[in-house]
């Protein structure tokens, strides 16, 4: 362990702050970078992980969090992503409870605060990795590199690559994982806070606590288990002060015998055994929890893993590593999604992009050479532990151990960026030592870099405030990414701009000709625009590419029904139901098809199935009442209407239909009550005013009838039949006036 100050630390162009001041400064910088995302919306993956996740709601049993994946699907399901993060979901649920619903401000604020805390704690982590581990009389960690650790922590707090993890609410998984990762490492260091002068003393209890915190990190995100690798490297390199280069020379060349007794005396084998046993136990438990094995990803998610041969796979994996390294070096081109053609595959050794692979490995080999062979023990330790912190947390995302479901994901760099920031601060410290006459220039450069980082964070976190700005910001970064165009189009369609959405959906299909979701959405818009032939072609192609795409089958059925291809439409609906057993909307549309064919019993059965699967399916209930009313089954229509209102008591459309039925049954008082209740909910319904007027007309309450006819005509002057009824009423009123003496 190093007990003297790191020699380059005093040259770092920063003031030497007290520990509390340093942490407050770093936390404030972290807040400054991302505070403008506090009032952002739920965007991108937030929809699935939070908005549509039933595990957040108080009505859902808390035990479901431990049985379901991050997205709310059962882990035993083949469609599950197997991302088991119950502690992260638990914090989402707490946010929901505290806010009384899905209000994004609380979710965002907690993310920002977590990043600030993690950034402040990074000072302690960097201090140990750079300056060594030592304690004062009170048991507090001594920082032998206060300026270097502060600079590295400032770089970490302000690094723009963190925006996805902080401004995107689902990034909570990365933040919590990083927090427990830090606590596990710092707790492991506590094991060596010796109460005596004996060097062989360490606390097994603190090692066990460190393992428990590692398990907590893993329950926030799978990447958390990598802290065991960092702890082991720290133990070997810093606690036991092993020179890896000399050790390898001894073992390979057998120059000197390796002193096993010295290693045993330090307790290293015991600690490594404890961590190995704990790590294997966590991996086994994780594997058992997954149930059906690893998740199944498609070529779209990770095309390199489906490359023709292993050479191309290795080349493309390494190209992905170089792109990740570039995001750390120059975090200007950031994108919410890097799949679907955003990064074209390297298919031959003559591709010019091979240069980036060679450059990456030249830099890494140079750093490794310095880390292993340098005569300077401080440099050797700092470089080695910096590389460990850079590489080890990235290992789960490197495609070596298992296939991952992405090409590049900025969020997985959250922990690895700490290693990069450590190496960057170390490099600047060395520059300050060697180029003392350029100290002012280096100071200005450091300040400028921090300002650029902060400005980029502010801009990028602003882009993450809404889906519109997030998706459009990706267009210049990944113009070949079909998913980017799809999401821009979907956002436009959701905001009512279907005309503009069509262009983006067409571009998504052009870039990725088998993009069935883009075809489905484009087909829906064309259906609404009555361009039925093209809509049918697109939807037919979508189901031919993905035969189990239930939504596309249903939409194809709707189009075919509109084209009066009734047999084909019925087959399409039943295909949709075959692939999605519980599909109430499809039963509803099937009922409409049967109603168009005057197959009334089949229509009623289909709508009844829809209400069984979804009891609050208002349209299905209402159509049953209307169909029974139109076919003269008024008693049954009344019964269905009352049943529907017991389930959805404030549905004004069902009240309206039931009121019409009761009026025909001459139950005028009850009918009036339902009409008036419906108007309290929807006072601007011209049809409701018109039909209430007809009721009063029949009932003999002519002045009230006149009032509601006039209200109906004021809301809709072209209301069919209303003006004729109103004129008839006026003639009757005039006739009554003339008869009055």
From TrEMBL:
- EC number(s) from the headed UniProt entry: 2.4.1.109
Topology within the bilayer: Multi-pass membrane protein
Q: What class of enzyme is it?
A: transferase
Give the metabolic or biological pathway.
Protein modification; protein glycosylation
Q: Which GO terms describe its cellular component?
A: endoplasmic reticulum; membrane
The GO biological-process annotations, alphabetized, read as: endoplasmic reticulum unfolded protein response
Cite a single Pfam family from the UniProt record: TMTC_DUF1736
Q: Where are the TPR repeats?
A: 482-515, 516-549, 550-583, 584-617, 652-685, 686-719
Q: Which domain of life is it from?
A: Eukaryota
Q: Where is the DUF1736 domain?
A: 293-365
**Principal location:** endoplasmic reticulum
Q: Which UniProt keywords apply?
A: Endoplasmic reticulum, Membrane, Repeat, TPR repeat, Transferase, Transmembrane, Transmembrane helix
Q: Which GO terms describe its molecular function?
A: dolichyl-phosphate-mannose-protein mannosyltransferase activity
Q: Which family does it belong to?
A: Belongs to the TMTC family.
Protein name, per record: dolichyl-phosphate-mannose--protein mannosyltransferase
Gene from which the chain derives: tmtc4
């Amino acid at each position: 362990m190093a007990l003297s100050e790191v020699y380059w630390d005093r040259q770092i162009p920063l003031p030497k702050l007290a520990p509390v001041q340093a942490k407050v400064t770093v936390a404030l910088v972290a807040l400054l970078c991302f505070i403008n995302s506090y009032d952002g919306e739920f965007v991108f993956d937030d929809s699935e992980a939070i908005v549509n996740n039933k595990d957040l709601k108080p009505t859902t049993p808390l035990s479901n969090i431990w049985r379901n994946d991050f997205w709310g699907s059962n882990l035993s399901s083949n469609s599950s992503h197997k991302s088991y993060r119950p502690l992260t979901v638990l914090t989402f649920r707490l946010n929901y409870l505290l806010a009384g619903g899905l209000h994004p401000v609380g979710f965002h604020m907690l993310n920002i605060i977590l990043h600030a805390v993690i950034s402040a704690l990074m000072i302690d982590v960097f201090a140990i990795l750079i300056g060594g581990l030592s304690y004062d009389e009170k048991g507090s960690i001594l920082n032998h590199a206060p300026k270097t650790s502060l600079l590295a922590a400032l770089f970490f707090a302000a690094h723009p690559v963190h925006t996805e993890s902080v401004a995107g609410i689902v990034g909570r998984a990365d933040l919590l994982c990083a927090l427990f990762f830090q606590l596990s490492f710092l707790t492991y260091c506590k094991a060596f806070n010796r109460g005596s002068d004996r060097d062989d003393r360490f606390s097994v209890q603190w090692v066990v606590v460190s393992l428990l915190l590692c398990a907590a990190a893993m329950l926030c995100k799978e990447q958390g288990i990598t802290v065991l690798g960092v702890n082991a490297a720290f133990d070997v390199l810093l606690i036991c002060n092993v020179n890896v280069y000399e050790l390898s020379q001894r073992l390979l060349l057998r120059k000197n015998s390796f002193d096993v007794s010295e290693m045993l005396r330090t307790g290293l084998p015991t600690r490594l055994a404890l961590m190995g046993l704990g790590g294997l136990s966590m991996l086994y438990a994780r594997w058992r929890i997954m149930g059906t094995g690893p998740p199944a990803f498609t070529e779209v998610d990770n095309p390199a893993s489906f490359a023709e041969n292993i050479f191309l796979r290795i080349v493309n994996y390494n190209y992905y590593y170089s792109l990740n390294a570039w995001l750390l070096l120059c975090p200007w081109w950031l994108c919410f999604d890097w799949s679907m053609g955003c990064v074209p595959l390297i298919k031959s050794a003559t591709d010019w992009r091979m240069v980036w692979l060679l450059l990456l490995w030249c830099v890494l080999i140079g750093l490794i050479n310095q880390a292993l062979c340098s005569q300077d023990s401080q440099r050797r330790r700092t470089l080695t532990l910096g590389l460990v912190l850079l590489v080890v947390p990235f290992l789960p995302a490197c495609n070596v151990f298992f296939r991952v479901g992405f090409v590049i994901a900025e969020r997985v760099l959250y922990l690895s960026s700490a290693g990069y920031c450590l190496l960057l601060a170390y490099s600047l410290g060395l520059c300050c030592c060697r180029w003392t006459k350029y100290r002012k220039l280096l100071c200005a450069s450091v300040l400028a870099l921090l300002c650029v980082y902060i400005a980029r964070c502010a801009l990028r976190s602003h882009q993450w405030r809404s889906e519109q700005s997030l998706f459009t910001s990706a267009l210049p970064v990944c113009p070949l990414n079909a998913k980017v165009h799809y999401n821009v189009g979907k956002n436009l369609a959701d905001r009512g701009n279907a005309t503009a959405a069509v262009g983006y959906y067409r571009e998504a299909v052009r870039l990725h000709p088998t993009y069935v979701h883009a075809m489905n959405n484009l087909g829906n818009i064309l259906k609404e625009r009555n361009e039925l032939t093209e809509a049918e072609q697109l939807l037919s192609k979508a189901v031919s590419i993905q035969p189990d795409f239930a939504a596309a089958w249903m939409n194809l059925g709707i189009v075919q029904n509109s084209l009066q291809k009734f047999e084909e439409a019925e087959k399409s609906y039943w295909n949709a139901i075959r692939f999605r057993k519980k599909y109430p909307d499809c039963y509803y549309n099937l009922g409409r098809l049967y109603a168009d064919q005057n197959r009334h019993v089949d229509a009623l059965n289909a709508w009844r199935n829809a209400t069984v699967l979804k009891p609050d399916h208002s349209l299905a209930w209402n159509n049953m009442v209307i169909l029974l009313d139109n076919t003269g089954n008024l008693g049954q229509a009344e019964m269905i209407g009352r049943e529907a209102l017991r389930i959805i008591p404030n549905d004004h459309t069902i009240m309206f239909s039931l009121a019409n039925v009761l009026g025909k049954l001459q139950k005028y008082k009850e009918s009036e009550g339902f009409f008036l209740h419906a108007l309290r909910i929807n006072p601007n319904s011209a049809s409701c005013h018109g039909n209430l007027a007809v009721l009063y007309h029949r009932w003999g309450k002519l002045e009230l009838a006149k009032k509601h006819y006039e209200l109906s005509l004021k809301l809709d002057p072209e209301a069919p039949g209303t003006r004729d009824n109103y004129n008839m009423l006026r003639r009757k009123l005039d006739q009554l006036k003339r008869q009055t003496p």
